[in-house]
TrEMBL record:
<keyword id="KW-0560">Oxidoreductase</keyword>
<dbReference type="InterPro" id="IPR036188">
    <property type="entry name" value="FAD/NAD-bd_sf"/>
</dbReference>
<dbReference type="InterPro" id="IPR006076">
    <property type="entry name" value="FAD-dep_OxRdtase"/>
</dbReference>
<feature type="domain" description="FAD dependent oxidoreductase">
    <location>
        <begin position="8"/>
        <end position="350"/>
    </location>
</feature>
<protein>
    <submittedName>
        <fullName>D-amino-acid oxidase</fullName>
    </submittedName>
</protein>
<dbReference type="Pfam" id="PF01266">
    <property type="entry name" value="DAO"/>
</dbReference>
Length: 370
């Protein structure tokens, strides 16, 4: 950053925007949080929000995710009874025709000290009692250090602190644009023409982030697909373990429910007059696939589901940094919004409040797409 800021406008009410806004007010910066609808109503409200750094990725990205998990562990330690943040591990297995994938994944994780256990149908019950072992079509990996968070609950938790510290929230702002004067970002303009001024602007609009910065002459690669997350009716026996399997991914959810998603049905999502739609029989099929995974569960019904774009940068790596072409405008766009949520807000606030670039974000600057 070229200089420190005293005031900032954060555009976006998802976890990255709310976290950045909260960390900024902790540093004494005056913050206006502006969101097109309500906080958590976008991608954060339909995220599986599995806290992990499993599988293969670049070392800078792995290091960032591990630090992100650390921040959640600190929050968890402050109150382990919260029903919206837990660490009970996660279970993965591949499809039957890729049966060697779990062994390869386990070997890779073990080489850099990621807590990883190879499991079979015969041994999985030593790690979790949630899964029906007969559902495992291949050997799997159990990662005991992983967890999950309900982002709407976390956003509410952070906003309570944010507003108590004097932060201001503008909801229902509609489609907003960054205001630039003399080549520098000086605020945002709402859909009804109001201008909200600040020394800097953070654009954290999830999958809309590339679209918001494009009029500024900045191109950020975008690979955001359409996705859906369904939430079940309450189960008789609560689930503790996150599961990532060939036909369904499951995460525990407050109220004894589970959140379920996958990618095999993306082509079934269509855009209708009132938004994105999916046939109810596809939702039912997803829930049936999820029910097969759970020990003692014969049927699983969806209480609700949400559809929208899942934020994924063009190269899969996060995007964090001030735009060189527009000083004072900061872009934040990442697939791992849940895992990075707390840390990303902290590092964004650090860069804005100190005027110095943080070395952990060096690999993720927006200019790599230029």
């Amino acid at each position: 950053m070229s200089h420190k800021v005293n005031t900032a406008v954060v555009l976006g009410g998802g976890i990255i925007g709310v976290s950045a806004a909260t960390h900024l007010v902790r540093r004494g910066v005056g913050v206006q949080l502006v969101t097109d609808a309500e906080p958590g109503s976008g991608a954060s409200g339909r995220s599986l929000s599995w806290l992990n750094s499993a599988g293969e990725r670049s070392k800078p990205y792995h290091d960032l995710r591990m630090a992100g998990i650390d921040r959640y562990r600190t929050l968890f330690a402050a109150d382990p009874t919260r029903d919206w943040l837990q660490f009970d591990g996660a279970l993965y297995w591949p499809s039957a025709d890729d049966s060697g994938a779990a062994r390869s994944r386990h070997a890779y994780e073990a080489r850099h000290g990621y807590d990883s256990h190879l499991v079979t149908r015969e041994t999985v019950e030593a790690h979790t009692g949630d899964v029906d072992p007969s559902a495992m079509v291949a050997d799997g990996v159990f990662n005991p250090g992983e967890g999950w968070v309900s982002l709407p609950h976390l956003i509410e938790h952070l906003l309570t602190e944010f507003t108590a510290a004097g932060g201001e929230v503008t909801t229902g702002a509609g489609r907003c644009e960054v205001v630039v004067e003399d080549g520098r970002a000086v605020g945002v303009r709402t859909a009804d023409g109001r201008t909200i001024a600040g020394d800097a602007v953070v654009v954290a609009c999830g999958p809309q982030t590339p679209e918001v910065v494009a009029p500024l002459g900045v191109m950020i690669g975008d690979a955001s697909p359409l996705s859906m997350v369904a939430v079940s009716e309450p189960l008789a026996k609560p689930v503790a373990t996150v599961m990532n399997t060939p036909r369904a991914a499951i995460r525990p959810n407050p109220g004894g429910t589970v959140a379920v998603d996958h990618d095999w049905y993306e082509d079934a999502i269509v855009e209708g007059e009132s938004g994105y739609e999916i046939p109810e029989e596809v939702v039912a099929e997803l829930m049936a696939e999820a029910a097969k995974l759970l020990d003692g569960v014969e049927e699983l019904s969806a209480a609700s589901w949400k559809i929208g774009k899942k934020p994924i940068p063009g190269d899969g790596e996060p995007v964090f940094g001030e735009l060189e072409a527009v000083p004072g405008c900061y872009a934040a766009f990442t697939h791992s919004g849940a895992t990075l949520g707390l840390l990303a807000g902290e590092l964004i606030a650090d860069e804005l409040a100190t005027g110095a670039k943080h070395p952990m974000l060096e690999a993720f600057r927006p200019e790599r797409f230029a």
